[in-house]
Design a protein that fits this description.
Order of helices and strands: HHHHHHHH
Number of helices: 8
Helix content: over 70%
Distance between the termini: 78 Å
Number of strands: 0
Strand content: under 5%
Largest sheet: none
Radius of gyration: 31 Å
């Protein structure tokens, strides 16, 4: 691609394959816009390739397009899986349920926490603040086993008291 003439010749050579590439991409991608985007990207990459062999332009640009379609499908699949995991993590909790859950947690904190031992209360508060059991144990200067036991006892007592 030493001169402007060479670039325009390559562009013309590559552009003759546009319609065929569009048909290929349309079969592989969900929307016309996605197909056009991949075709245009393939055309640009092929036209800007150094030492483009005129006899193999069709094969070259087709292989570029197919790889772009695969990359697009892979990215869409990854995004879909991530969205699914996000929805699973949050579940189908309605705003009303979330408010009720928050109110119940507040009630439990106010009314039932005073019935727990100091250690159980401290471990629960640390966990509610987002610390792991191990981090809570470190913060409270107790062993990990003690923190786990206190957490287990607290959960059992709260379940029994809330029932």
């Amino acid at each position: 691609m030493a001169s402007g003439v060479r670039v325009s010749e390559q562009w013309e050579l590559v552009l003759t394959h546009r319609e065929r590439l569009l048909r290929i991409a349309r079969r592989r991608l969900p929307t016309m816009e996605d197909a056009e985007d991949c075709v245009h990207e393939a055309l640009i990459r092929a036209a800007s390739a150094a030492d483009l062999d005129p006899a193999r332009v069709g094969q070259f640009v087709t292989s570029i397009l197919v790889r772009l379609c695969v990359d697009h499908a892979r990215a869409a699949s990854t995004a879909q899986r991530a969205l699914g995991r996000l929805l699973e993590a949050h579940g189908d909790v309605s705003p009303e349920e979330a408010i009720c859950d928050h109110a119940q947690a507040s009630w439990i904190m106010e009314n039932l926490m005073e019935r727990l031992s100091t250690r159980e209360r401290d471990v629960l508060r640390a966990r509610a603040d987002g610390l792991s059991t191990r981090e809570a144990a470190r913060q409270l200067n107790i062993t990990g086993k003690s923190a786990e036991a206190a957490l287990t006892r607290a959960r059992g007592r709260i379940r029994a008291l809330a029932a």
